[in-house]
Design brief:
This protein is mainly alpha-helical. Helix content is 42%, strand content 8%. The chain folds into two domains: 80 residues, no CATH class; 59 residues. A hairpin with a 2-residue loop joins strand 1 and strand 2.
């Protein structure tokens, strides 16, 4: 990483924040290799800068950035106090207000915009409401086969 703030970050001069290319493959490997260093990000005031610089989702990053542990650009572990505010401002797209829009934000290390947040809530509520119905249908199908 570059920038004067990197010298003042708690991880400055420390190793083990990104695995050696040959040493890792799976999420478990990354957890074993980098997970022990995650608490170093706890007091770091530069989490937003760290994520904005590395762009973990976009570059399919493996390792630690911004208080989160990433595997192939996806967060697989995080400190308890991470906040969406550490992610970049959302960029509004034609797909905003849909599940695809919400996925675009997360692929780009951005906060989710209000209309995508609302769409995600509605989709989740619909899924929850449909769950009992699906289970009922499965039971009926099962009963019909006996
Ligand atoms: S958030 Fe973590 S990895 Fe990023 S600069 Fe701070 S201590 Fe280093
Ligand atoms: Zn959006």
């Amino acid at each position: 990483m570059t920038g004067a703030w990197t010298l003042r970050a708690p991880c400055s001069g420390q190793d083990g924040f990104a695995p050696n290319q040959d040493a890792c493959g799976s999420a478990t490997d990354i957890k074993n290799l980098c997970g022990p260093q995650l608490p170093t990000c706890g007091p770091c005031p530069f989490r937003a800068e760290c994520i904005a610089t590395i762009k973990p989702s976009q570059v399919k990053f493996d390792g630690i950035a911004g208080g989160r542990l990433w595997c192939n650009g996806e967060v697989i572990d995080a400190l308890d106090d991470v906040s969406d505010d550490e992610l970049a401002e959302p960029k509004l797209r034609p797909s905003c207000g849909t599940e695809a829009g919400a996925k675009s934000h997360s692929r780009n290390d951005e906060r989710i915009c209000p209309s995508c947040r609302q769409a995600t809530r509605e989709i989740e509520a619909r899924r929850q409401a449909e769950k009992p119905k699906r289970q009922e249908q499965l039971q009926l199908d099962f009963a019909g086969t006996t």
